[in-house]
Amino acid sequence: MQTNLLQNKVALITGGASGIGLAIAEKMFEAGCHLAIADIDLGKAEVAIMSMAEREQQKKIAIQADLSETESIRHMVATCEQSMGPVDILVNNAGFQYVAPIETCDPRQFQKLIEVMLVGPFVATQAVFAQMKERGWGRIINISSINGKMGAPFKAGYCSAKHGIIGLTRVTAMEAADSGVTCNAICPGYVDTPLVRNQLSDLAKSYQLAEGEVLEEVILRHVPQHRLLEAGEIGNLAVYLASDLATGITGQAVNISGGYVMH
Ligand SMILES: NC(=O)c1ccc[n+]([C@@H]2O[C@H](COP(=O)([O-])OP(=O)(O)OC[C@H]3O[C@@H](n4cnc5c(N)ncnc54)[C@H](O)[C@@H]3O)[C@@H](O)[C@H]2O)c1
């Protein structure tokens, strides 16, 4: 990947302290942007920021933000803008998983999934949208999932949020289409991150399998490439979508799933 694709851009990545968000942050910083990592866990966000080598003329900051809280999201955007200038690239990535059959699914967990992974991205989009359109350039990248295109048992809230954010992506793209701002969703398959590793025991219970069987039986057997993806692969795609190389791509929900989903 070219090293200067995102030079002078300001990128704000939610949930950027771990997994996919961290990989996107690293790849975008390598591509030359100023970087804000926002996360509910400020300590982890600071560690992530410090792990990146100092680069002359590139600023980087950690921001505490809870994507289920409107005021916290607005404060996150304002803090980023005060330190580095208007947000050019917003990556709505923060998320979590909760696995349970519908009969025993806790409605508060269902609601929280929708708040963090659908309402939060909407509020963040709202906070950057007007200035992006006025300035004639912007990128909004929403991290959906293959579970935004297909159902998965025991993931009612997660699948609902991930389907919903594809709808939000399309509306955002249409409202911005004549302004130099694009909005796309990335739909990863299973990526080797804490979110996937931590759900294996709950999946084992719900599928009534031994924990050691879950990875093969529930996940890898459906993946033509028969592997978990690396988070950096998602990072490379995000850099591309954020760059001027992808100006004509908007309103898309792009799969990166080792062939798991092909529509
Ligand atoms: N790992 C996968 O296989 C996979 C596949 C498809 C989509 N995704 C999506 O990618 C995104 C990142 O997932 P990941 O696998 O890297 O998970 P992860 O658990 O490694 O990282 C998620 C990050 O989000 C942060 N976060 C959680 N709730 C938050 C909140 N309320 N406010 C702010 N930050 C919060 C966490 O602190 C963490 O740093 C999520 O939206 C997830 O649904 C992951």
From TrEMBL:
Q: Which SMART domains match?
A: PKS_KR
A GO molecular function term, named singly, is:
3-hydroxybutyrate dehydrogenase activity
> Which UniProt key words apply to this protein?
Oxidoreductase
PROSITE patterns on file: ADH_SHORT
The EC code for this enzyme is 1.1.1.30
Source organism superkingdom = Bacteria
**Record's keyword annotation contains Transmembrane:** no
Using the UniProt record, name the top-level EC class of this enzyme in a single word: oxidoreductase
Query: Known Gene3D superfamilies for this protein?
Result: NAD(P)-binding Rossmann-like Domain
> What NCBIfam families is this protein classified in?
PHB_DH, PRK12429.1
Q: What is this protein called?
A: 3-hydroxybutyrate dehydrogenase
